[in-house]
Amino acid sequence: MDSFSAYLEGGLAPEAKASVEHHLSSCIQCRTSLERFRRTLGGLGRLKGTAAPNSFLADIQQQINRRSRGRFFRRRWLLFGRIPFEWLSLAMIVAMLVYYLVMLQSSPTGVKPIP
Amino acid sequence: MSLSERLLVARLVKRDEEAFNEVVRQHGDRVFNLVLRMVGSRAEAEDIAQEVFVTVFKSIDSFRSEAKLSTWLLRIATNHAKNRIKYLARRREQGSEPGGADSGDLADEGKAPAQSQIHGPDVLLEAAETEDIMQQAIATLEEDQRLLVVLRDVEELSYEEIVEITGLPEGTVKSRLHRARMTLKQLLEDKFK
Fold first, then answer.
1. What is the pTM for the complete model shown?
2. Which residue of A has its CA nearest to B27?
3. What's the DSSP call for residue A82?
4. Predicted ipTM?
């Protein structure tokens, strides 16, 4: 029974392996025991991996930020994790357009030339 | 260690935040799973796994590049999990904590939605029960044996990696692991009798 792990993991020398197999061929008790041992290992291998929670990264960043007194992982104004340059550009274009229209409206239209 | 890993570590040493995020994304689930199997409670596992990555951020300068980053991470995770188990045991001894790891947390993990679409409810229930029983059996092992079972049979690490993580000689790893497996086999036999 001491050899079960080594036997199943292919860690026995050829002579030792042959000796185990010879014994197994004539001992039903050890064969049953080996089969149960194999099933135990199979059950362990089938345990499902559990994913970390969705907030895992954000929680760690928060911890580091707090412990470093704000030196790392500073909260920034981000959209989807980055600065939204395209939205900033659009906002600037709209602002410039509005400014141009306002200036156009307020500029004197009926200016008479000075005599 | 691969070139890409060396580059990643070099960025980590400079406290590059995006490099750190990459490490958490790459190794977060594995660290969380290892710790969860060790302590048996989701809430404790979340706390410990976060602490592992905070330690990584702080102590990356002490990482020696002859080891793999994943091995180093798992060694930190193992130490944190062991310390927490000792701490929780002390608290239980002092009577301030209701006993036992809340295996209920892990029992909830046994029901993957993808599986429920494939298998009938009976098969799913049986699988969840088996996983639950297996986790309970793991939880009864001695801490050192539990660690070896999780590293080898659940996480499927090589003996070389396990030796690096635990600092134990390979022969000791193998003999302790074999004893742990035999104990588990016996526990499961008793359970299903």
1. 0.77
2. A52
3. B
4. 0.82
